[in-house]
Amino acid sequence: MTRDRVVEVALELLDSEGPAGLTMRALGAKLGVAPTAIYWHVGDKAALLEAVVDHITADVGEVHVGGVEPLERICSTARSLRHNLLERPYLVAVVHHQGRTAEIFRPARLVLAREFAASGLEERDAALAGEAVLHHVIGSVLIEQQVARAPEQRQPPEPSIEPGELFEFTLDALVRALTGC
Amino acid sequence: MTRDRVVEVALELLDSEGPAGLTMRALGAKLGVAPTAIYWHVGDKAALLEAVVDHITADVGEVHVGGVEPLERICSTARSLRHNLLERPYLVAVVHHQGRTAEIFRPARLVLAREFAASGLEERDAALAGEAVLHHVIGSVLIEQQVARAPEQRQPPEPSIEPGELFEFTLDALVRALTGC
DNA sequence: ACCTGAACACCGTTCAAGT
DNA sequence: ACCTGAACACCGTTCAAGT
């Protein structure tokens, strides 16, 4: 029983049971310990969620930047970020609930601003362009996840648009527009 | 005490106290009635939330489309949608929790696809372009709201980028890229 | 038809008490 | 230092009982 172990098991519980399943009692049971023992190691549930999101933030921050020219590096950063966000099903909801959505984008934000600057934009425009790409990524992921677990949606959003294809199509148009190619 | 009255007061409670404050007990108290009376009119809390989101969906769906040429109509639709989404602070979170994010975009989606088609794109490309604009709107709103109520964010996302300005900048670039102007 | 009250199973949390 | 158990205030929900 260490703080790291508690957070680790909390993440497992989150992945398997969802946010509603992550209760102090269930977590205690999975740790083989009384629920109240958690309070000694990590504090209350707010502190636990902070720690969980700390871990998630670190994971999401590890964006893989490939390619050599700025345009390709921008696109690969966006793809990597999207991939990281789609990995954990409840990631966006939990991070949003903690009010830390802006925070998890920091590493990608820095890369994007740098690469847009390298593509010829001046500092402020590069920052704006980077933010635009982030908006596109989070918007895509949010809607993709929602469409996936929609209730009995009367009809699919559009006749057979595959999410990945849609993402690539739009990313390409957006980045070309922002860099002025 | 009618079903509509219950939903109406539930929306008030949601706006004033947030999602955590919307409890059957608090709702009963505000209605001057026992919490269990709600069950007779609207069913359980899941049914209540469905009804609340029904109402929100109708509100968000009322997008104002201005201008005459397609490009201006697309931008004004996006602005109107953004405005509607920003109006209620907990809208995005509640709708997302109900798994109905894709649904609230339906009216705007139809308008956007139609206008992109009018601008010269063929049907499928018009649908893709419309979806891209929706991604941009939801992404912008999500991050804007999060930055607004971030905890003790160490530093603001970027040196003084006003959200509205950022939205306009990116929307313009995106739409011009998609329509090929 | 409409509402109340008691009751139940579940939360998060505190705190004295154990080792 | 680390954990347990009982207890408390809060949830959503059911259901018999009232009018």
Describe the model:
In chain A, 70% of the residues lie in helices and 0% in strands. Chain A has helices at residues 3-17, 24-31, 37-42, 45-61, 70-87, 91-97, 106-118, 123-148, 163-179. The model of chain A has no long low-confidence stretch (mean pLDDT 92). By secondary structure, chain A is an all-alpha fold. Chain A has two domains: 3-43, Arc Repressor Mutant, subunit A, CATH 1.10.10.60; 63-179, Tetracycline Repressor, domain 2, CATH 1.10.357. In chain A, α5 runs antiparallel to α7 (106-118) and α7 (106-118) crosses α8. Chain A is elongated and about 60 Å long. Chain A binds a DNA duplex (19 and 19 nucleotides) through α3.
Largest β sheet strand count, sense and barrel closure of chain A: none
Shape of chain A: elongated
Oligomer: homodimer
> What is the name of the CATH class of the largest domain in chain A?
Mainly Alpha
Spans where pLDDT lies below 50 across 5 or more residues of chain A: none
* Average pLDDT over all residues of chain A: 92
Number of helices of chain A: 9
* CATH architecture annotation name of the largest domain in chain A: Orthogonal Bundle
Proportion of helical residues of chain A: over 70%
SSE run of chain A = HHHHHHHHH
Report the count of strand segments of chain A: 0
- How many domain regions of chain A? 2
Structural class of chain A: mainly alpha
C-alpha Rg of chain A (nearest Å): 19 Å
List the chains of the largest interface with their residue counts.
Answer: A-B, 45 and 45 residues
CATH fold naming of the largest domain in chain A = Tetracycline Repressor, domain 2
Report the sheet-strand fraction of chain A.
under 5%
Distance between the termini of chain A: 56 Å
